[in-house]
Amino acid sequence: MQEYLPIISLLVLAVVVAIGFIKKINLGFFALGAAFVLGTVGGMKASQITAGFSSSMFVTLVGVTFMFGMASQNGTLELFSKKVVALVGKRTVLIPILMFVLSAFISAIGPGHIAAGILMTTFAMFLAFEMKINPMATSLYAKLGANAGCASTLSITGILAAQLSNPMGYSGFGLHLFLSTLLSGFIFTLVVYILYKGYAVKADNPMKWSEIPAFNKQQRITIIVIVIVVICCIGFKLDTGLFAFLAASVLILTGCADEKKAIKGIPWGTLVFICGVGALVNVINKLGGIKLVSDYLSSLMSANSAVAIMSATSGILSWVSSTTGVVMPALLPIAHNVAQTFGVSYVELMSAIIATSFAAAISPLSTGGAIIMSSYSASKETTTEEMNNMFKTLFLLSVANVLINVLMSWLGVFNLGHLFY
């Protein structure tokens, strides 16, 4: 029985997702039940099963959506978006570019994709609703930008890559890695831009700048609080979710928002949806389902396919785990062995692994996709069917992004012509 658990776990995941979409039920509750049954059969303790329900992700999602929900409720985001639209004027096609560039810049100078991605993606979603433009596309531009800029030498990803690689004798690849990840993010952003017709973005702009009212006292306080959150989370690397709760408390105490309305606006169903599926995937990982897939890919490896297969492996792992917490520590040492065995460039392997891992990070199973879903349901009333469709769309986009990066790896794009290393 034990030897069949990896296969069984993968089949359970497929069944859960299929039933969720067919019956239009909340996948989170169903996934938690399936995780309990599967984990129990696999000999896991209850504490091991529930460990996959990410408390840190839950706190982050609740805190950020709670804070931005207040900013939406008191009209701050609506007024701010009108001012942004007024500045852009008729050049609303610049909005997607603005979202990507600003997110990439913030990500590159701070701790990377986590804080910058959460803050910018949430803001982009609320902004899109206020401007009446595509919320999915607008938030994707922001998240893809945050991922694209996250591997600079100043960010946690770039620093971790150096820490993991230096003991193996590799250094001086900082610019190469940063440009590789930036290129990967830019290419898929271009795909999303074309897919969602970003070149044809048109937002309502009924007022000129002079016709837009000034921020009132509560709105000014809200803006100050959000700016402080951005500075503290990016500049001082404080926890985004916990700090957002502190910021929300300040907004309540200063009378800037209605506490009861803000709490009702938190998308509890979506949060259970996200974390419940994550718990099931964690059980599958513990039972060997993910390793089964990764081992199969590794068995296919050769000198010509090594970079592409390592890229694909990182993408698959990233769908169910953290890039910096799991993928990089697990795969970079393997990349060193592969480089020596097959005579390929370690820096190219590393760049492909990290870029593809972040390509998968728009999946709803990751923080990036999760914050898009939670922000969407916090911005408007949604149905379970709508959430299921968004889950499917984000996951398919994530798959497409990974496939594009695997193709780039196979074509040798991540060696960047050996210009930077």
Radius of gyration based on Cα positions: 22 Å
Described by the principal axes of the CA atoms, the overall outline is globular
Summarize model confidence as the mean pLDDT. 85
N to C succession of SSEs: HHHHHHHHHHHHHHHHHHHH
How many discrete domains?
1
Describe the secondary-structure layout:
Blueprint lengths: L4 H19 L3 H15 L4 H5 L4 H19 L2 H13 L5 H16 L3 H19 L3 H14 L7 H10 L8 H22 L21 H19 L4 H14 L5 H6 L3 H19 L2 H10 L7 H15 L2 H20 L3 H14 L7 H13 L4 H27 L11
Helix pairs in contact: 1-2, 1-14, 1-15, 2-14, 4-7, 4-11, 4-12, 4-14, 4-19, 5-7, 6-7, 6-8, 7-8, 7-19, 8-10, 8-19, 9-17, 10-18, 11-12, 15-16, 16-17, 16-18, 16-20, 17-18, 18-20
Describe this structure in words.
With 421 residues, the protein is mainly α. The protein has one domain (5-418). It contains 20 helices and no strands. It has helices at residues 5-23, 27-41, 46-50, 55-73, 76-88, 94-109, 113-131, 135-148, 156-165, 174-195, 217-235, 240-253, 259-264, 268-286, 289-298, 306-320, 323-342, 346-359, 367-379, 384-410. Helix 1 (5-23) packs across helix 15 (289-298), helix 4 (55-73) packs antiparallel against helix 11 (217-235) and helix 7 packs parallel to helix 19 (367-379). The longest helix is centred in the C-terminal third of the chain and has 27 residues, at 384-410. It is globular and about 65 Å long.
